[in-house]
Design goal:
heterodimer, A: 158 residues, mainly alpha, two-stranded antiparallel ribbon, globular, B: 188 residues
Chain lengths: 158, 188
């Protein structure tokens, strides 16, 4: 297990190309999120593409560089912020329209006009950070077989 | 329509290979192929939104699954099938197939939804008034994040609770346990 943590990441070519590409992938994800009310795509797909940029960086540069860029717990906190934005926007617009009022659109829509981008931003934040958390958790666990028994190990930080 | 049939046949072949092969990595690659074919099928049925989402999720799942299986000592599955279990499985699949054929006879034609038979359906209202009521030119977004926003809220809640719960279960153990784990790992 020790030799696996020493040579981190992939070779020089992969690192260089990932360094060039990750910005463009991030930009495309943000574009999909911000233009979701006009073009195909949306918060979910855009969020996963944003997560793909981080995952590409983590795969190329190794787990510790990826954790230094965005740690698991920071990602979970950002996802919580996104979920709270979604919930807050929903509650705020439901309160303002009157959820049980005569205007039945209040309970069905619970949105202001042109509030799509806010929901999409929140959705993209939640999805991208949670997918990154899933990736970092699954790539941090080893399964080894010893004496016919499967054992699960966590990768150590050092 | 014939193209869709070709895609469906390819998907079924890929799924069968994914089940039958003993190598874990090639099984994952076959599952990924099925997913990409589904996204092409969505594209030809006129659903670019779904196609983008399916493509992206499939690529990401492929990365995560390959990352989780490669470099592991556990890359192939061996062992014979039990005769009784196989027989029960085949019988259940046959029963489901017969029931499915009966159900499909009552379905509306391909591309004709049940909602379209009624006069004043929700879907036609959404299509007619979606743009001015929600301010989104993309009808899919107007539906998902407008009329069906409770649905989206529930989805966000589900994925959030699932991943945060998994993170809590798979977290690093406390300091005292960590020492024991480390010595155990060093022994291997």
């Amino acid at each position: 297990m020790n030799d696996r943590t020493q040579h981190e990441g992939m070779d020089l070519v992969a690192k260089a190309i990932a360094g060039w590409l990750k910005g463009f992938i991030l930009l495309f994800g943000v574009y999909l999120v911000l233009h979701s009310h006009e073009t195909p795509g949306g918060g979910f797909a855009g969020g996963i593409i944003i997560a793909c940029a981080f995952i590409l960086f983590t795969l190329a540069e190794g787990q510790h560089a990826g954790m230094k860029l965005l740690s698991k717990h920071a990602a979970a906190k950002l996802a919580s912020v996104g979920a709270l934005i979604f919930l807050g926007a929903a509650i705020a617009s439901a309160c303002r329209k009157g959820a049980l009022g005569a205007d039945h659109a209040g309970i069905l829509l619970f949105l202001e006009k042109n509030a799509m981008s806010l929901y999409d931003l929140a959705l993209a934040l939640v999805v991208s950070m949670l997918i990154y958390v899933v990736f970092s958790v699954t790539s941090a666990v080893h399964v080894t077989v010893k004496d016919g028994q499967r054992k699960m190990f966590r990768q150590r930080r050092t | 329509m014939s193209l869709l049939a070709v895609l469906l046949v390819l998907m079924i072949i890929g799924a069968i290979i994914a089940i039958e092969t003993t190598n874990l990595l090639s099984s994952i690659v076959c599952v990924g192929a099925v997913g990409f074919l589904i996204s092409i099928a969505f594209l030809f049925m006129g659903a670019p939104d779904l196609a983008i989402t399916q493509l992206v999720v499939e690529a990401l799942c492929l990365i995560i699954l390959i990352r989780a299986t490669i470099n592991r000592d556990l890359t192939s599955v061996t062992g014979d099938r039990e005769f009784f279990g196989l027989t029960v499985t085949v019988a259940m699949v046959l029963v489901c197939l017969i029931a499915g054929v009966k159900v499909f006879e009552d379905f509306p034609a391909f591309g004709q939804t049940v909602m379209d038979r009624m006069a004043d359906t929700p879907s036609s209202v959404y299509l007619a008034h979606g743009t001015e009521q929600t301010g989104a030119r993309n009808v899919i977004t107007a539906l998902i994040l407008g009329y069906r926003n409770y649905d989206a809220l529930g989805q966000v809640a589900v994925i959030f609770c699932a991943v945060i719960g998994a993170l809590a279960i798979l977290r690093r153990p406390a300091k005292k346990d960590q020492k024991a784990k480390d010595s155990e790992a060093d022994a291997v």
